[in-house]
Amino acid sequence: ISRIKKSDGINAKPDLNIFKDKVAVVMQGPIVSKDNFTFETLMIYRKRFPDLILILSTWDNYPNHELDKFRKNYIEIVRSIKPMNFGYSNINLQIESTKNGILRANELGAKYCLRTRTDQRIYRHDFIQFFISLLHLFPINNHKRIRGRLISISLNTFKYRLYGITDMFTFGFIEDMLLFWDIEHDNRDLDEINSGTSVLDWSRARICEVFLVTQYLERIGHTPLYTIKDSWEVFSNYFCIIDKSSIDLLWFKYNRWNENRRYVNSYRKLDEELAFSD
Predict the structure, then answer these.
(1) pLDDT tens digits, one per residue of 131-154
(2) Distance from CA of residue 82 to its chain's centroid?
(3) Residue 223 CB burial class (10 angstroms; 0-12, 13-18, ≥19)
(4) Which residues pair with 53 in a beta bridge?
(5) Can you give the pTM of this predicted structure?
(6) Rounded to an integer, what distance in angstroms lies between the CA atom of residue 120 and that of residue 216?
(7) Do 113 and 23 meet the contact criterion of CB atoms below 8 Å apart?
(8) Residue 232: exposed, middle, or buried by beta-carbon count in 10 A (0-12, 13-18, 19+)?
(9) How many helices and strands in the chain, by DSSP H and E?
């Protein structure tokens, strides 16, 4: 797929936003300087949605002069200190900078919040309206601890990895986002974590994405049973998984030229991604 690189290529006027509540986008991670990817992504969002609260949540090693262009374009900067223990596959880095970004979004009065990454870009022109509409179309009624679903994407959300919703992308009401992300670090000794040889072993070890989701489930009063049935019921009852193609998501990493490399419809795969149709 051919896409524009810079915000200057966006010439259409913003869509009419029928939702008047404040929405924040927290972009988390190290700044991607190649092609000014992170900066241009935020500028595209600014053109699409002039009223968005845009937050770049990154690390304290960036000098002020590298961040000036963000500030000049009314982008909030949150700088975090990296934890001593990065955790398995850097999970604690994600928790720390994401949590701090969402806390800032809450301070600024956001009702809804999207957490995404500095190396990802959404091209779909109406994705904010789409996400809010999904929360209204698929409500959670009379739950004591959560206000609504958390929306995530098919990319790296695997159907047969128990509670393995991707850690790259989350949207929801701000209080639900804090419930998911404002947690303690995973400070287990890496030598003590046994990922095993099966998907079930990996899930029971509560690694990365599974750690986040199972922490959330415990907070909302759902005890994980570590079965396919329970995992799918969790996906169905508390989350909404959308296809990455529905928001035209670009991931500026790995084999980005083969965007549908996991898509196979003629047979089942253990690493098959969960789709909205599922």
Answers:
(1) 999 999 999 988 999 999 999 999
(2) 19
(3) exposed
(4) 24
(5) 0.92
(6) 24
(7) yes
(8) middle
(9) 8, 9
